[in-house]
Amino acid sequence: MCSYIVEKAALFGSAKGPKGWMQIDTANVYFDHPYHAPLDHALGIDFICEAEGGRDRVAIEISAESARELVKKILAALASGEAAHAAPAVAAK
Amino acid sequence: MNFPYQAMLAETVTFHGHNNDLGEAYYARPLGAGPYPGVVIIHHMPGWDEWIKEVPRKFAHHGFLSIAPHLYFREGPGDPDDVGARVRAAGGVPDEQVIGDVNGAMAFLRRQPISSGKVAVMGFCSGGRHAYLVGCRLPDVDAVVDCWGGNVIVDDKSLLNDKRPQAPIELTEHLRAPLIGLFGNDDPNPSPDHVNRTEAMLKKLGKTYEFHRYDGAGHGFFAVNRPNYRPEQATDGWNKVLAFLNKHLAA
Q1: Which domains does chain B have, with CATH numbers?
Q2: ipTM of the complex
Q3: Residue B4 has pLDDT above 70, yes or no
Q4: Phi-psi map region of B209: left, alpha, beta (phi>0 left; psi -120 to 50 alpha)
Q5: Which is nearest to B92 in space by CA: B77, B66, B74, B106?
Q6: Bridge-partner residues for B144, per DSSP?
Q7: How far is A66 from chain B (nearest CA, A)?
Q8: Contact A4 B125 (CB under 8 A)
Q9: Are the Cβ atoms of B219 and A40 closer than 8 angstroms?
Q10: Any chain A CB within 8 A of the CB of B251?
Q11: Residues of A with CB below 8 A from B92's CB?
Q12: Domain ranges, ordered by start, for chain A
């Protein structure tokens, strides 16, 4: 059944769409019938800039399994990336 | 050689919807003299997609005028999927507006010189709920086709809001037109329990209806581009719908 449930995440960053780069401040996240993906239900994310009216979006529709894998990889990339970029420990004299 | 001639025209048109707002719609018709009955197609939450435009062409092939209004036209311009995303973010469109838009689409069909004057409404998923609602709210609907419309029954009243203030089941006494419902027994919404309770209400109030429940099918089993597609059940379902409309929209 079509749902009207949307989770909103406040963001800071940019996304690239057909018109090029744009500032984004919000991700609308939902799990419902997709528009394009050949799935009965898909995890959809619309990256938008509400401050600019929210009319343009960068969108994805992926399977639930893909979404869970993506969440894991986002956390893994953050963990390893933040460790790599952390200031090196000062060697004890 | 004597070949039967078949032809149709399908195109985008404008129609006057709720508040007399001018919107876009997809309209298909046989290229004959008529008179033809009509069917208004109500799209699901994601919006005015390719599938919903296939449906009027199917009906035109079977001798109906058919129009699928873009129920989100006020949020345009833009690709229908982007427009649908805006509507989703805003929590959907109000029931009252949908009823007005469907009323306008029905009037569009009845104005056509080749119209028989008989018009049905058909919807899928949230559009199935809308079809049920429209059947209860508009007095001049000639038939209703509810394909797996969920939330016709709302057990959790906290789900009602300004846009969807009433569960359609509560308006069933006002339904005048015959109704056909198609449901998959594996569908969680509408669940078999909701389908049974809806049928019980229709029966109790003496309404003309027929329900068809399909084993081995879930939600949206007509959609050929999705895993839930069930060819046998979908073929039977389409045959049931066409037979129902031919019976109840006959001149």
Answers
A1: 8-155+165-248 (3.40.50.1820)
A2: 0.84
A3: yes
A4: beta
A5: B74
A6: B121, B179
A7: 16
A8: no
A9: yes
A10: no
A11: 4
A12: 7-85
